[in-house]
């Protein structure tokens, strides 16, 4: 046997094994989806399509088999069934795969930890913060006093300028000039 024949046989075995794995995975996905989806024509809210042989259930099974063969995930198949047959066909939402990002799975824990650490650090520095607040208040009071002095000085200058303008106007009136 040549090396080409050996490679061909090896690849054929790999393809056969891969096909068997894919078939098992498809069967498992079919079984899981059949358990999650309700027969859309049934009056019972908990009757899964795996137990039903109504025309609607057969249509649902056909669509699900087609989508599984195309390689769709459980979530995608479920969303498609909800789109076609209505939102109430999902009877076991806990079996859906959690496709959120890892950080969003633990968002509450992370937020609680961050705010907890912030609160503890704030309490630890509270003694330092009190003195800093007192200093800041003293500085702001000094700035307010300086602002008041500046505004009073500014008002005095404006008043002097206005009185000078009145004097000029009086002088021009007496001299009959404009």
TrEMBL record:
Q: Could you list this entry's UniProt keywords, alphabetically sorted.
A: Heme, Iron, Metal-binding
Chain ranges of the CcmH/CycL/Ccl2/NrfF N-terminal domain: 16-132
- Which GO terms of the molecular function aspect are on file? metal ion binding
Membership in a protein family: Belongs to the CcmH/CycL/Ccl2/NrfF family.
Which protein are we looking at?
CcmH/CycL/Ccl2/NrfF N-terminal domain-containing protein
């Amino acid at each position: 046997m040549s090396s080409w024949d050996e490679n061909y046989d090896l690849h054929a075995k790999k393809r056969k094994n891969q096909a068997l794995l894919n078939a098992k995975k498809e069967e498992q996905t079919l079984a899981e989806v059949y358990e999650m989806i309700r027969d859309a024509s049934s009056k019972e809210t908990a009757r899964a399509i795996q137990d039903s042989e109504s025309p609607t259930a057969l249509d649902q099974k056909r669509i699900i088999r087609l989508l599984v063969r195309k390689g769709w995930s459980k979530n995608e198949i479920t969303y498609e069934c909800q789109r076609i047959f209505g939102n109430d066909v999902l009877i076991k939402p806990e079996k859906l795969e959690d496709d959120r990002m890892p950080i969003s799975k633990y968002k509450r824990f992370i937020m609680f930890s961050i705010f907890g650490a912030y609160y503890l650090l704030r309490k630890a520095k509270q003694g330092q913060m009190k003195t800093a607040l007192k200093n800041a208040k003293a500085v702001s009071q000094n700035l307010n006093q300086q602002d008041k002095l500046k505004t009073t000085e500014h008002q005095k200058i404006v008043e002097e300028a206005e009185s000078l303008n009145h004097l000029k106007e009086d002088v021009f009136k007496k001299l009959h000039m404009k």
